[in-house]
Amino acid sequence: MERSSGFSSVELRKLRALKTPAGIQRFLDQLPYNLSITSRSPRQVLRDHTASCLEGGIFGAAALRVLGFPPLIFDLEADNDTDHVVAIFKVRGHWGAIAKSNFSGCRYREPAYRTLRELALSYFNTYFNLRFERTLRRYSRPVNLVRFDRLNWMVSEKPIWFIAEHLCEIPHIALFPKAVAKNLTRVDPRTVRAEMVGHRKKR
User: Is the CB of residue 46 less than 8 Å from the CB of residue 28?
Assistant: First the structure.
């Protein structure tokens, strides 16, 4: 698997040095959040030392692959807000997640969730827009990025928007009935302040 990845021996050493899913998350947490609209490959994230949500999720999947996990992502879909792309992994039958986010609570999840629905719902309370509306509504099935190996998704020097496009095209599963969404309260100011710690804005 690693031999066909396209990563150099130096890049592979850096990725193996992360050792665990939590180590991958620590690496992503150290990167400045990328506010530009780009779709860098994992190689470019490693080189440029910055990542957006999309780039962080895809990087997480590539790093998981080097550590022996399948390179899986899934998509959290929101209303009146942006989607969130998350790398997912399974340990002892339970799901966990790795993510890059501009919001504190939309990042790592320990492998403690029995189903992907449980994992997706763990993001619900801290998933809100700048009008402080709770916006998370749906999630996708896992996408194994092996399907894009022929496009060199891990090491491409070209934008890898084809992954984002695929996520937009696949079915998503509702987290709860529409009637529930009509009665949701807005996020309280204390939660907002906590979630905005480290939030990066365009200058």
Answer: no
